[in-house]
Amino acid sequence: MERTTTVISPQDIEAQLDHCRAVAQLTQQWPEKPLAFVDTYGCQQNEADSERIRGYLSEMGYGFTDDEEKARIIVINTCAIREHAEQRVFGNVGALVHVKRRHPEQLICLCGCMVQQPQVADKIRASYRHVDLVFGPHALWKFPEMIHTLLLHRGRIFQNADEAGSIAEGIPVVRQDSVKAWVSIMYGCNNFCSYCIVPYVRGRERSRKPQDILSEVRQLVNEGYKDITLLGQNVNSYGKDLDEPMDFADLLAQVNDIPGDFLIRFMTSHPKDATQKLFETMARCEKVAPVLHLPFQAGNDRVLKVMNRRHTREQYLEKIRAIKTLIPDIVLTSDVIVGFPGETTEEFEDTLKVLEEVRFDALFTFIFSPRTGTPAASMDDPMSKEEKLANFNRLTALQDAISEEKHAAYIGKTVRCLIDGLCDDERYDLTARTPGNRLVRVVGDEGALGQFREVKITDANKWSLFGELV
Prior knowledge:
The chain is α/β, with parallel strands linked by helices. It contains 13 helices and 21 strands.
């Protein structure tokens, strides 16, 4: 299979915008302005992809709704990381058959990582015949052309061929948030961890040109965005495929040099590529948030080797010590898989020891979920579900206690926070984020939305902080 990255030309994107304009001419003839419902599962990269789908839909003349009954187009952007997410998608898509029966003119589209898997696309083709369009991440840039074709010639379109992947600049974007923004700096992954489907569905690593990234960030800052997250499956690999290679630390420094009052975040980092240079750049750059998400997945070296993680427990801990030396107040988060095939309870104990030494602020924890097509899916897995659940509960109990203790240390402090939304708790008015991305529920005036404000922390639990505007 050819794995050379395809760069979509400006002319090809302009052709897609021509399809947008043609669809807009059609929609203008309809009695009412058509609405679209875009539902997103999974990671921030999927959220960023959905923003581009909304951008295209807006150019086609669609407004937006959260009501499936009112939508002329439904787009479900799917995730393939865990079985639970796939089952939710199948359940929700199955229920749409009744909605479409009431609204036969409706177009139902499935996209994202899940449908890039051949066995999933085949299942949709055979068993979910009310779905009109299926396309993987590689075909997103052609979304207007596919919609235009369906509106002119009703039928079914499947675009999920196995490809190296592409880079497409110039796709319009409609963001749902006016304070926080995602900026993809690269796509795909070359790591092939034995449990992970991402390299198979998102293709190989490919980096956007730094000038395109910097231009997008400047525009966001000019529009008033205050919290900008640089996205990639492994941001620390950024730049290795560019004609003029640069590394992620250099890119981070250049983003930091953009004038304006805003925070820079990034995810996700792979431990094997997290360098001392990156840590020193984080410490030096005043706009880079003091937070690092560095997944370690397991604390036992044998398990890490079978996972193909390409780092050891001690190498990981050395990097944690290095970042803590440079940034003592760093907020650390991570991912952990419990019950990887062949993991014993004794090996799992090594994971608990990592938690006790590092003392993460928060963890994203998962019981192993086999993904068809990955090496781990066919490995012997003798541990029972009950044992895995017991270990998982031990892990979460330990992390909950650490998180609660760390959050309690904030009480009485005044922290500069970004006020980012309205709170759904009637006792509080606003939500905010500390520089380390801890959630704060705040009493205060809605006029503070979108601003950096001093917040006095008055209480805490294991999930969040509570405070009031100073």
